[in-house]
């Protein structure tokens, strides 16, 4: 019995002395339980890879957050409990700084009109209690916006995403800030290398790959000449679905050739799947024929 009591006392001692442990890990020294600031994970694919964030989500609970609970000019761990971690699984660019692949802890100094956001290399700490300014590797000063709605639970999200770009939102109470993200040069080069490798393979599906490459070149790179060349290769290889002809029309219209754009849209109309109702595309193509002919 004395041994059992001693073991319990030891566990309790480790429990209280280990307050910097992850409170949701299944650990014999911890009580794995629901927490007041539940952890969340959010991820978004931008370019070829994902950006992932794991963070604690505190609630307002009737308090004044900015200028109250969080004093202006003081460091904040951007969440609750242990570190909020952002994991870049490729190279990205934020406000002119190239961020290499890796994990960083998120911190901010919230002020009335702007926040200074830090990426910190210490990903094993416990929020601002172990924060050291010398571990900051990137710093971004961002203006504060009034959020369109009151946000009870601190929220990190991705918005306004496209193939290679997006915005990272931080929103709580009545405040919102956002970081613009795009892919880095090495990341962009990897995409080009993927195209070179995939389009060089002599296989049955290569035509569809030319379509995908054309779409990317048209939407992201605005390289209309190369996009037109690739979509024509897709069509010539037998990929003649309505969406290939429609993309060809979009490219031609962007290049200023309205007549050929309308002709491509008409081909798209002819190649709509027979026997299947597709009102969205039917209306889209009809509208393009009218608009491109103006």
Quick tags:
Serine Threonine Protein Phosphatase 5, Tetratricopeptide repeat, six-stranded antiparallel sheet, 3 domains, alpha+beta, four-stranded antiparallel sheet
Distance between the termini: 91 Å
Helix content: 25-40%
The pLDDT mean sits at: 87
Describe the main β-sheet briefly: 6 strands, antiparallel
% residues in beta strands: 25-35%
Instruction: Give Rg in angstroms.
Output: 26 Å
Identify low-pLDDT runs.
1-21, 23-27
Would you list the SSEs in sequence order as H and E?
HEEEEEEEEEEHHHHHH
Count of domains: 3
Molecular structure report:
- The protein contains seven helices and ten strands.
- The chain has three domains: 1-33; 35-183, no CATH class; 200-292, Serine Threonine Protein Phosphatase 5, Tetratricopeptide repeat, CATH 1.25.40.10.
- Helix content is 34%, strand content 29%.
- Residues 1-21 and 23-27 have low confidence and may be disordered.
- It has helices spanning 2-17, 185-199, 206-221, 224-236, 242-254, 258-270, 279-292; strands at residues 39-46, 49-56, 85-88, 92-94, 97-99, 102-110, 114-120, 136-143, 145-159, 165-183.
- It has 294 residues and is an alpha+beta fold.
- The longest helix has 16 residues, at 2-17.
- The strands form two sheets. Strands 1-2-3-6-7-8 form a six-stranded antiparallel beta sheet, with no helix packed on it. Strands 5-4-10-9 form a four-stranded antiparallel beta sheet.
- It is elongated and about 65 Å long.
């Amino acid at each position: 019995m004395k041994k059992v009591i001693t073991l319990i006392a030891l566990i309790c001692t480790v429990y209280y002395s280990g307050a910097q442990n992850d409170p949701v890990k299944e650990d014999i020294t911890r009580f794995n339980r629901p927490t007041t600031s539940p952890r969340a994970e959010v991820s978004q694919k931008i370019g070829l890879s994902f950006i992932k964030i794991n963070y604690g989500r505190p609630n307002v609970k009737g308090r004044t957050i900015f200028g109250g609970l969080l004093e202006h000019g003081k460091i904040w761990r951007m969440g609750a409990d242990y570190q909020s971690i952002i994991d870049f699984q490729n190279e990205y660019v934020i406000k002119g700084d190239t961020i290499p692949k890796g994990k960083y802890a998120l911190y901010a100094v919230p002020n009335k009109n702007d926040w200074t956001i830090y990426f910190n290399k210490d990903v094993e700490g416990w929020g601002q209690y172990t924060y050291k300014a010398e571990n900051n590797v990137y710093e971004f000063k961002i203006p504060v916006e009034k959020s369109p709605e009151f946000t009870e639970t601190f929220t990190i999200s991705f918005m306004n995403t496209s193939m290679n770009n997006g915005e990272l939102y931080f929103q709580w109470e009545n405040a919102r800030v956002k970081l613009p993200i795009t892919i880095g040069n090495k990341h962009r080069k990897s995409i080009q290398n993927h195209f070179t490798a995939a389009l060089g393979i002599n296989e049955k599906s290569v035509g569809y790959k030319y379509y995908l490459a054309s779409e990317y070149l048209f939407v992201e790179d605005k390289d209309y000449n190369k996009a037109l060349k690739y979509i024509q290769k897709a069509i010539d290889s037998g990929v003649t679905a309505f969406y290939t002809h429609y993309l060809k029309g979009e490219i031609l219209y962007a290049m200023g050739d309205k007549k050929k754009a309308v002709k491509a849209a008409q081909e798209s109309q002819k190649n709509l799947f027979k026997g299947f109702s597709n009102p969205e595309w039917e209306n889209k193509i009809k509208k393009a024929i009218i608009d491109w002919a103006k």
